[in-house]
Give the backbone structure.
Amino acid sequence: MTLKIGVIGTGAIGKEHIRRITHKLKGAQVVAVNDVNTEQAQAVVRDEALQAEVYASGVEVIQAAEVEAVIVTSWGPTHEEFVLASIAAGKPVFCEKPLAVTAEGCRQIVEAEIEAGRKLVQVGFMRRFDHSYRQLKRVLEADTIGAPLILNCVHRNPQSPSSDFSGDMALTDSCVHEFDVLRWLLDDDYVSVQVIQPRKTRLCDDELQDPHVILLRTRQGIHISIESFVNCQYGYDIQCQVVGETGTANLPEPPSVPVRHAAKLSSGILDSWKDRFIDAFDVEFQEWIDATLRGEMTGPSAWDGYVVAVTGDACVKAKYSGRIEPIELPECPDFYTN
Ligand code: NAI
Ligand code: NAD
Ligand code: ISE
């Protein structure tokens, strides 16, 4: 069986996902694409030799008869409309993060999905599929270092991730990956947050505060510190250390050959999320394709997207109030606990 997919948004990550589905993974074919930049959509069809129709709008992709499932990789502010339209069409939809740019938008998606009566939405939180995060989770589940007490995390990009990266996107668009993967890792939820604005780097847009330090507290009382530094210059660097009662556990570093040369010992650091999470994206999409063909939805849900958006909103509030702000979530609906 082959899952026939429509892709909306053929920019950086849309192209990456189209290539992996077409050339690496099994069980799916891209049959329809759209981008507001039509030439870009046409170029990807030509360059990847796709047998796919270029549609004039995202909604036409969703409604196309040959499209059985949808991938949304357009800019964040467009996601809500396309996810709601996919639910209305009864089609499974994989949406890159963020699910919507406001918590209210995510809540509407949650309500529409519950109303539709079956799980259709998966959010692109690929770190849950990353081998190194899965290894770290196994160490915690085996109780090797006792109960987790403190997490020290780092999310650094060499430069701002996109040309439209502005305002509080470090909190609402970039650290969303930590917000998702850490509650998954700990099987916990957040209760409060404080955001610290350290001395600002000179090597970024004048408007942008960079770096930030985000301090989260969980229901179990675990203290999490996330340094977000999106213009660190030297590379793409993701770190996570868990301090437990009887030891510590670190997220494994991506493998790199240690080189001894010219009186130096060195090893490489990656420079993009594309390479750091290349295997995670492959696993994420193969699992999504397989589950969708079985009529299931097993990955990060619309509820997970909503929780992350509520956390992002609380971060923004805490940044400007300078205070510790509560993170208040309604009870998770039964629909998402089964
Ligand atoms: P991009 O700017 O390279 O691509 C976005 C594409 O969407 C552009 O080609 C744009 O023309 C198109 N687009 C915008 N509005 C549209 C609309 N209404 N209809 C159709 N197409 C539209 O951005 P990039 O880096 O590919 O990011 C896309 C999404 O992927 C974002 O939501 C971003 O947050 C997410 N992303 C996720 C990553 C991850 O690690 N999971 C990494 C990078 C991006
Ligand atoms: P991008 O700017 O390269 O691509 C976005 C594309 O969407 C552009 O080609 C744009 O023309 C198109 N687009 C915008 N509005 C559209 C619309 N209404 N209809 C159709 N197309 C539209 O951005 P990107 O880096 O590819 O990011 C896209 C999404 O992927 C974002 O949501 C981003 O957050 C997410 N992303 C996730 C990860 C990750 O690690 N999971 C990494 C990068 C990006
Ligand atoms: C980008 O959009 C991503 O999703 C990357 O994974 C992340 O590391 C980066 O900071 C985001 O902005």
